[in-house]
Amino acid sequence: MSKEAGLDLIEISKDANPPVVRIMDIGKYLYQKEKAKKENKAKQKATEIKIIKIGPSISEHDAKIKIKKLAEFLEEGHKVKVEIFLKGRLRANQGFAREKFENFLKMIDVAYKVDQPTKRLPSGFVIILSK
């Protein structure tokens, strides 16, 4: 039947009793399978971790600009790592830096989820957020 139709005889399941075969064009089948694979790959979206760095002396206006950018990243589906970086003598005043960091997080007006809670590093604090 497959020779009459000019198609290929393809074995689908050899373990079945009797074996299952299909009459089809193997070239067309492989082409469609490859096309579906490429389509699925194009639909996948890789998430990146974007980094927003702030300093302890950040002004309110600068903080709002950083928050606007943070909101864009979250809308695009990326994870966002927010860092407050302390230099020199500021490392000694961790309480002040934590307070500034918490105030920055309170200013964020978009809905977010905390993936990794606030973690203290030698150079400051870090938190990872997602949508």
Fold and architecture overview:
With 131 residues, the chain is α+β, with helices and mostly antiparallel strands. It has helices at residues 2-5, 26-43, 60-75, 94-107, and strands at residues 8-13, 20-24, 49-54, 79-85, 113-121, 124-130. The strands form two sheets. The chain has a four-stranded mixed β-sheet, covered by helices on one side. Strands 1-2 form a two-stranded antiparallel ribbon. Helix 3 (60-75) links the parallel strand 3 and strand 4 (79-85). The longest helix is centred in the first third of the chain and has 18 residues, at 26-43. It is rod-shaped, with a radius of gyration of 28 Å.
Please give a quick description of this structure:
The chain is of the alpha+beta class and 131 residues long. The protein is built from four helices and six strands. It has a four-stranded mixed sheet, covered by helices on one side.
